Amino acid sequence: MKLLFFLPLILFCLIPQQVTVQDTAPVNVIAHKWTRARKTVEVPEGPGITPPAGAMIAQNKNFARNVRANEPPGVRDPNADTLDGRSAQMEKNVQDARQPKSKQMDGITYKVKVKNDSANLVEVLFWEYQLSDPLTPENVTRHQFICGVSIGPSKEKELEGFSTTNLSNVISVDSLSDKTKQFQEKVIVNRVEYADGVIWQRKDWSLKEVKASYERALKEAWVPGMCKSL
User: Fold this and answer.
1) Average pLDDT per consecutive 10 residues, the chain (230 residues; last block may be shorter)
2) Contact criterion met (CB below 8 Å) for 226 and 39
């Protein structure tokens, strides 16, 4: 189900798309806010144990090894029954038991409420939360997200993105002394992908600037309505 749901994100890299580049977004941002949060995040599995070199058993001699290469799937590897093979498997089991599958992370939750002002169904949405110093507004920190959504024409939806990066890297000491003027905040829609294959994209934004993080996000697990940090 997850793969089928997020298939449009993969397919758009493979087939030509109709892209409209404009300044005015067809998805309107109605409200936005951020809060400090702690969430449980998945921890990637470690590299694991490197299997030892096969012992010089009869099955590892050239002729026997070539025969085993053509054996059907499911046939047990004779190396697993050697002392080295059993030791490696035991060590792997110990490391797997110690390896945490998830952990608590401190970060920032960014929430936005959007409305689809177009006549088409929105499936994918790229957006960013901008924060700047009131004393030096040209210094902007951007937190970008991609969401797998389903927003019908004239419908509204609340979206939420979580990031472990700093809230802002450019806030001055003078700004921090006045909490009422700590940040200037803005949410911008960068790209909208519709169910019919049409794409709208902001004039001053390019997918290339988030290419690496976008490809990383595609390899992770997805569920409907989820937003990933870019």
Assistant:
1) 46 55 88 88 54 47 48 58 67 64 83 95 95 82 93 95 80 52 86 94 92 86 82
2) no
- In this predicted structure, what is the pLDDT of residue 96? 63
Tell me which residue has tokens 């794409």: 199
Domain count for the chain, please give it.
2
Q: Is 183 part of any domain? A: yes
Q: In the numeric block, which tokens belong to residue 183?
A: 């940040």
Backbone angles phi, psi at 74, to 5 degrees: 100, -15
Has residue 22 been placed in a domain?
yes
Rounded Cα gap, residues 114 and 120, in angstroms: 15
**What's the rounded Cα separation, in Å, for the pair 193 and 191?**
7
What is the Cα–Cα distance from 77 to 74, expressed in whole angstroms?
9
